[in-house]
Amino acid sequence: MRIIGPDELVFGVDNVEASEAFLTDYGLTPAGNGRFNALDKTAISVRPKDDPSLPAPMRTATMLRQTIWGVENQPSLDEIEAELSKDRKVAKADDGTISCQDDAGFEIAFRVSQRIKLNLPGEKINSPGAVPGRAANEIGANEDAEAKPRTLSHIVYFIPDMDKMANFYIDRLGFVVTDKFTNTGPFLRPQANDDHHVLFMIQTPEYMQGLEHLAFHMQGPTELMLAGSRMVRKGYESFWGPGRHKFGSNWFWYFNSPLGTHIEYDADMDKHDGDWVEREKPMNKENSQMFLFENVEKWAPGGPPPGKG
Amino acid sequence: MTERMLLCRLADIRDGHSKGVAPDRCGRDRILLIRQGTRLYGYVNNCPHYDRAPMAWKKDEFLNGDRSRIVCAGHGALFRIEDGVCELGPCLGQALTPVNLVVEAGAVYGHDVPSERCVHGASGSGRKTGR
């Protein structure tokens, strides 16, 4: 099952204008028909909630209507279709996209990934004792950097039955558990992606089922903080961060959004292979993050006390 | 009943819209106000889902698309404007904490405004958690 990761998330929203403004300010590129692309063309799409082309809404508050997973090639897609057709109705669209529901009732779809391969520099740092990341006279602080999300990183669902949900992705679609928060849920990566997680879940009552958050990868921690601080300056509501998670090691900064979900910038996530042995910890604030900061207004020290210069 | 605090002028709130007021020391609005004609509603800006969950998606934006409900832009929870009860979302059946408001000579005052300490460290917020 050569699944790469989420290719596109489709939302039915009650405020299209606000959602489009948010996604543009977040750094995605409008691509028409409500679609907003990251640099590798993974995407968020927003449509009015009563758009008849959308899958039916859940009965909860979530505005997520469909998660479209990208797979490596047509044989992978055929394999998934054959597997899921064993016990559920799988629809096939003219463009080859297949769709159905997962075992928790989320609308999911699969297609040969539309993402393009990126060839971009990582964040370059200078560290004593190491080969310099930047050449002499190459400046690190670029306030004009575009700071655009590179690729759709991961999604997190609120789900009523974590074991049932995890087993579907593990047993039927070949996802692998990298780490686990006890009685909360596992971090999962699919076979064609070495990122620590593309899917995480949090056990909740049934009436909460939906999307907890989604995240895009940024170049590195500096771009993450640049993009996040621009969002704050534009008046958007920082929810949690910046900080750095323990499981996955990714830097994070979460914002509220008019799409009824937190939307995160992340950067510098761990990568794993088959040799990795999963860890398990209780879910709490100590295990959730290595450190946590909050944006404050810019300030600078001067010479003498104010008014005495 | 604590000392009252000047929140804003009534004319600062567009009819049918919301406004965040009384920023704490971190710049987060402690109170959200909604004006519907001559009626004014005020709640503590914290979703009952968590002990520290500011609700707007952008400065002053606390309402859903048709402005018929207060929305938490964390997970889309919807609250009735008139009594703050959550009708849909993670805090179903719980309610926002109301703020006693007084309007005098075009100015809006609030009682029992949470402390201006930053929301980090919920114990210092002066907020009733209801738990």
Core attributes:
heterodimer; A: 309 residues; alpha+beta; 2,3-Dihydroxybiphenyl 1,2-Dioxygenase, domain 1; 10-stranded mixed sheet; 8-stranded mixed sheet; 18 strands; B: 131 residues; mainly beta; Rieske Iron-sulfur Protein; 3-stranded antiparallel sheet
Explain what you see.
The complex is a heterodimer of chains A (309) and B (131). By secondary structure, chain A is an alpha+beta fold. Helix content of chain A is 16%, strand content 34%. Chain A has helices spanning 16-26, 74-84, 162-172, 221-233, 285-288; strands spanning 3-13, 29-32, 35-37, 43-48, 64-71, 91-92, 98-101, 107-112, 151-159, 176-182, 185-189, 199-203, 210-217, 238-245, 251-255, 262-267, 279-282, 289-292. Chain A is globular and about 75 Å long. Chain B is mostly beta strands and 131 residues long. Chain B has a single domain (5-121), classed as Rieske Iron-sulfur Protein (3-layer Sandwich), CATH 2.102.10. Chain B contains no helices and nine strands. In chain B, a hairpin with a 5-residue loop joins strand 2 and strand 3. Chain B starts with a strand and ends in a 21-residue tail after the last strand. Residues 121-131 of chain B have low confidence and may be disordered. Chain A binds chain B through residues 13-16, 18, 22, 60-63, 158, 204, 207-208, 210, 212, 234-237, 239, 256-258, 260-262, 294, 296-297, and chain B through 26-27, 53-61, 64-66, 71-78, 88-90, 92, 118, 120.
Summarize the structure.
With 309 residues, chain A is α+β, with helices and mostly antiparallel strands. Chain A has helices at 16-26, 74-84, 162-172, 221-233, 285-288, and strands spanning 3-13, 29-32, 35-37, 43-48, 64-71, 91-92, 98-101, 107-112, 151-159, 176-182, 185-189, 199-203, 210-217, 238-245, 251-255, 262-267, 279-282, 289-292.
